[in-house]
Amino acid sequence: MLKGVSMKISPILLVSLVLLSGCSTSYQSNGLTGGYSETQLDENVFKVAFNGNGYTGREQVADFTLLRSAELTMQSGYKYFVIVNAKSYTSNSTYTTPKTATTNVNANTYGTANAYGTVTTKVSGGQTYNISKPSSSNTIVCFKEKPITGFSYNAEFIFKNISTKYDISE
Fold this sequence. Notes:
Blueprint: H1 11-21, E1 35-42, E2 45-51, H2 58-75, E3 80-96, E4 100-110, E5 114-124, E6 128-143, E7 153-154, H3 155-165
Antiparallel strand pairs: 1-2, 2-6, 3-6, 3-7, 4-5
Helix pairs in contact: 2-3
C-alpha cells in the first residue's frame, strides 16, 4: 500500500463487487453472501434457515436447508428429524449501474475567428439488473429413535447424500 494514501470502498463499489463475483452461496454460516442460520426453540426443536444470493438456485437453497437440518440433528445427539413447518420465498430487487458520458472534441481553426470540427458524446452504463435471492426455512423436531408414525428423515443419510451431491467435505 502506498504511504499516505487512504483506501475507501464505497457501498456502491462493494455491492458491485458482490454482484460481479458470480458465485452462488456456498454451504456456510450466514454472512455477506448468505448462508445458514438456526434458532433453538425447545430441547429438540429448531428453526433452520438458508439464504441464497442472486446466483443461488431455489433447489440448492432447499437442499442446503435440509443439509443443515440433518447436520444440526446429528450435532445435537439425535438420529432422525421431522419437518413440521417449511417455507420458501424469494426476495427481488434491482440494481442500476451509474451512467457516464464521455465527450470528445476534434477542432481545427483557421484564421483568427473560425473553427470547425466534430463533437461526439458516448453514454454508457445505466443497465438495470434484476436480482432474486431465494430463501428457505424448516422447523424441525429431532428424535433419537425413528418415530413410529408419520414421515421422518434419517439425518446421517440426508447429510451424506446432499454433501456428496454438492461435494462438501465434512
